[in-house]
């Protein structure tokens, strides 16, 4: 198993289900939830290293969820999945502390590479803060 | 507005303006002329009346003077003295020394016997007892005769006064020089066609008229009864209009007639009429000319304004259309991206599963693998389209940097040169002399130039030329880039759609129809203008203009 844990947040259930299966297949510990509220609840009981977060969701949207995650768990890294190729929301997300953003539909390989980089940064920052 | 509409409008303007300027002009001209005519005519009438009355006074005075002269003579003499030899001669000389009116002087006794005579004729001894005038002078004391030929067959008239002396009466008689008398009347003749004469009660000429008839002939056209004062008559005579003043003398029943040709008298009025008509004509010409000129200027201005408005409308419509289509495209792209993501993940999942050994041994493994690869390839293709669409709709703020247009063009052309050389297309650079520096976004500019030059290469296809020109437009303070080709040009029906998204003439699959659309929105965002012109079959010209950097030179 990979040393990091991942949480995927996306309201598109088909997408969520498949990406979770594919990541598990690559020996990654992963959980999937369909909304920002669920993500926050999940993080309370199941801490992860990297969150893959869809920007556009009904209810609490990606940026708001990101803001709350960063407030509560500053070391958790977030990668934004953006449906509309708006650089604006990507940049806004980065300003709020996201590690990076990926445009949908993304290749799984690219995504995993970003997850690993994000995990590396998290470890580095945790070490620095000790 | 169509051509016909402009013409109708112009005619309407001309008609209205002419109506409102010419009618007052005519009314003014006509009323001034009418007023002038009235006052001038009445002045002429007054003049004529005054002249006639003046003459009448003069003639009356003349008769008065003659009568009083003769009366004075008669009453200062006795019959015996006046008939004494030499007396009458002395009297005649005395009277004649002051005035030359008298032709002769005679004394007639109560029996009508001409007892004394002084004058050029041999009248002594004639008897007048039975003549009317002798009866009349005996009865009334004074007498003025009509003009008559008398014994001598010479026109003359006589004035006689009777002197009552004790129980008998004698008469002093004088013949009056008609020439002098006529001269007095003729003094009232004016102009070349005016006339003045005297008529007696039977309308027989007492003085010779200038025209129509002679002395002692009867006047047939003026048959006026006795009246007081002076009458003005408009009188037609042999087709000529005459203005006539007539007045009866007081001392003798003679009618003084003064005729005037109004045509002659009214000459200044006719001159005024000609002047008025001339001025009016000039005024009308000026007004018509001015109206036509002004309407032409107005219509020209209107046509220009309409054309500018149409261009502005077309521009605005294009912008609005692009904005709307852009929004729509972004919405669609976004909605499509989500299912695409799902499809990609599902295909990925199948690919993952295909890696398992038992499936790899299946007969159809190759088919599965191939299908998954195709699905992924086409997801990628769809993704390219949606990302371009989103890029097109993206409201990214352009970077503001100093850009050397020539450098950007050089880089872009270098990028395309291989392709051009391959197709035997020459790209000619005709740059302006100085460095055109503008504030813009070089990468976005490059995208625009790439799009347009690439299109030009596609249009030319094989063996041709492309010109890239830059120059400065001092008037608008802008830098212009012209990209021209000698390809087949753009059909007119395509010109209006060329910047629309998804409009393409290229084969399906080889062009998205977004290139020029994106170029258009980039240029607009950079504060520039892009215009296309095509002169088939001589190729197309894209003209881009960007605001020059303030204070660059």
Automatic annotation (TrEMBL), chain B:
Its EC number is 2.7.13.3. InterPro entries: HATPase_C_sf (IPR036890), HATPase_dom (IPR003594), His_kinase_dom (IPR005467), HisK_dim/P_dom (IPR003661), HisK_dim/P_sf (IPR036097), Sig_transdc_His_kin-like_C (IPR004358). SUPFAM superfamilies: ATPase domain of HSP90 chaperone/DNA topoisomerase II/histidine kinase, Homodimeric domain of signal transducing histidine kinase. Keywords: ATP-binding, Kinase, Membrane, Nucleotide-binding, Phosphoprotein, Transferase, Transmembrane, Transmembrane helix, Two-component regulatory system. It comes from Desulfoglaeba alkanexedens ALDC. GO terms for molecular function: ATP binding; phosphorelay sensor kinase activity. This is histidine kinase. It catalyses: ATP + protein L-histidine = ADP + protein N-phospho-L-histidine. It comes from the Bacteria. Residues 331-550 form the Histidine kinase domain. PANTHER family: C4-DICARBOXYLATE TRANSPORT SENSOR PROTEIN DCTB, SENSOR HISTIDINE KINASE. The chain crosses the membrane at residues 12-34, 277-299.
């Amino acid at each position: 198993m990979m040393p990091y844990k991942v949480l995927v947040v996306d309201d598109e259930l088909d997408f969520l289900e498949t990406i979770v299966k594919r990541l598990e297949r690559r020996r990654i510990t992963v959980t999937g939830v369909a909304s920002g509220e669920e993500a926050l609840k999940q993080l309370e009981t199941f801490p992860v290293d990297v969150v893959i977060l869809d920007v556009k969701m009904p209810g609490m949207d990606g940026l708001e969820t990101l803001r709350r995650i960063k407030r509560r768990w500053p070391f958790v890294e977030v990668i934004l999945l953006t449906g509309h190729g708006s650089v604006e929301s990507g940049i806004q997300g980065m300003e709020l502390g996201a590690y990076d953003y990926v445009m949908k539909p993304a290749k799984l390989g690219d995504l995993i590479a970003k997850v690993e980089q994000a995990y590396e940064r998290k470890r580095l920052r945790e070490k620095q803060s000790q | 507005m169509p051509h016909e509409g402009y013409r109708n409008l112009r005619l309407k303007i001309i008609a209205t303006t002419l109506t409102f300027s010419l009618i007052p002009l005519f009314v003014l001209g006509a009323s001034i002329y009418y007023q002038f005519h009235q006052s001038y005519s009445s002045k002429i009438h007054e003049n004529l009346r005054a002249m006639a009355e003046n003459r009448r006074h003069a003639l009356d005075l003349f008769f008065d003077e003659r009568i009083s002269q003769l009366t004075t003579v008669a009453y200062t003499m006795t019959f015996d003295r006046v008939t004494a030899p030499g007396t009458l001669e002395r009297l005649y000389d005395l009277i004649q020394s002051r005035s030359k009116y008298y032709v002769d002087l005679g004394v007639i006794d109560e029996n009508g016997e001409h007892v004394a005579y002084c004058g050029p004729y041999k009248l002594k001894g004639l008897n007048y007892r039975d003549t009317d005038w002798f009866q009349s002078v005996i009865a009334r004391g004074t007498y003025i005769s009509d003009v008559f030929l008398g014994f001598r067959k010479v026109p003359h008239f006589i004035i006689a006064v009777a002197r009552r002396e004790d129980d008998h009466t004698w008469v002093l008689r004088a013949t009056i020089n008609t020439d002098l008398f006529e001269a007095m009347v003729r003094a009232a003749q004016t102009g070349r066609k005016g006339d003045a004469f005297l008529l007696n009660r039977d309308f027989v000429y007492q003085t010779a008229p200038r025209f129509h008839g002679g002395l002692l002939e009867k006047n047939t056209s003026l048959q006026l009864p006795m009246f007081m004062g002076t009458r003005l008559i408009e009188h037609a005579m042999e087709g000529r209009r005459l203005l006539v003043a007539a007045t009866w003398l007081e001392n003798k029943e003679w009618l003084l007639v003064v005729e005037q040709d109004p045509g002659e008298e009214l000459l200044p009025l006719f001159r005024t009429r000609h002047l008025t008509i001339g001025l009016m004509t000039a005024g009308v010409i000026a007004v018509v000319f001015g109206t036509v000129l002004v309407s032409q200027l107005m219509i020209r201005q209107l046509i220009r304004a309409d054309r500018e408005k149409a261009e502005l409308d077309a521009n605005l419509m294009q912008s609005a259309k692009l904005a709307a289509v852009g929004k729509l495209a972004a919405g669609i792209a976004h909605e499509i991206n989500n299912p695409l993501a799902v499809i990609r993940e599902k295909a990925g999942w199948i690919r993952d599963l295909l890696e398992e050994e038992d499936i790899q041994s299946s007969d159809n493994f190759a088919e599965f693998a191939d299908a998954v690869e195709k699905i992924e390839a086409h997801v990628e293709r769809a993704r390219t389209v949606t990302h371009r669409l989103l890029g097109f709709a993206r409201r990214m703020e352009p970077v503001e940097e100093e850009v050397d247009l020539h450098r950007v063009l050089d880089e872009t052309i270098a990028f395309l040169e291989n392709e051009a050389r391959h197709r035997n297309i020459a790209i000619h650079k005709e740059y302006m002399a100085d460095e055109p520096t503008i504030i813009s976004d070089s990468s976005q500019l490059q995208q625009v130039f790439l799009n347009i030059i690439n299109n030009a290469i596609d249009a030319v296809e094989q063996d041709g030329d492309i010109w890239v020109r830059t120059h400065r437009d001092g008037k608008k303070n802008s830098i212009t880039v012209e990209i021209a080709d000698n390809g087949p040009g753009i059909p007119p029906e395509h010109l209006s759609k060329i910047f629309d998204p998804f409009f393409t003439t290229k084969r399906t699959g080889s062009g998205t129809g977004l290139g020029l659309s994106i170029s258009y929105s980039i240029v607009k965002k950079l504060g520039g203008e892009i215009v296309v012109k095509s002169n088939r079959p001589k190729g197309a010209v894209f003209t881009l203009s960007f605001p020059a950097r303030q204070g660059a030179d």
